[in-house]
Design goal:
Layout lengths: L10 H6 L7 E4 L3 E5 L7 E7 L6 H7 L2 H18 L6 E4 L3 H4 L8 E5 L11
Antiparallel strand pairs: 1-2, 2-3, 3-5, 4-5
This protein binds guanosine-5'-monophosphate.
């Protein structure tokens, strides 16, 4: 099955264009991070690349080295700034249908601030 093309009308593309507000926690040339609108833990931050990438595999294959370095470093910096590094946290990148990705623009969830449940609940 072919992988879908990037949809420029997805909600994170609208946030990047400033058409929808977000509660921003970090921004640089390649990366934007903001609080999730429906947090599932005391810390729940979404980190997105500014480029039009649907998923981590798309990003890894097609992003420039500068974008990949910026994104990787930003996730670490944002976790540290959020104060979750010492106690620990979880990174999640839901991907497509089986991964239950709702927004088709690459995003990593940084989730922490409490002891989290099991990684995969039973269906
Ligand atoms: P996914 O299920 O694609 O991994 O996660 C999408 C996340 O985006 C969800 O946790 C959802 O709460 C969040 N979200 C959806 N729409 C918005 C929005 O307009 N603003 C923000 N800040 N988060 C959103």
């Amino acid at each position: 099955m072919a992988v879908s093309a990037y949809d420029p009308q997805n909600i994170f593309a609208k946030i990047l264009r400033g058409e929808i507000p977000c509660n921003k926690v970090f921004e640089d040339d390649h990366v934007l991070a903001f609080h999730d609108i429906a947090p599932q833990a005391p810390t729940h931050i979404l980190v997105i690349p500014k480029g039009a990438y649907t998923s981590y595999d798309d990003f890894a294959a097609n992003a420039s080295d500068a974008e990949i370095i910026a994104y990787t470093r930003a996730i670490g910096k944002i976790a540290a700034a959020a104060g979750v590094v010492e106690d620990g946290y979880r990174l999640i990148a839901n991907t497509r249908d089986h991964g239950r990705q709702d927004v088709p623009h690459l995003h990593v969830h940084i989730i922490g601030g409490k002891k989290l449940g099991l990684m995969l609940p039973k269906d």
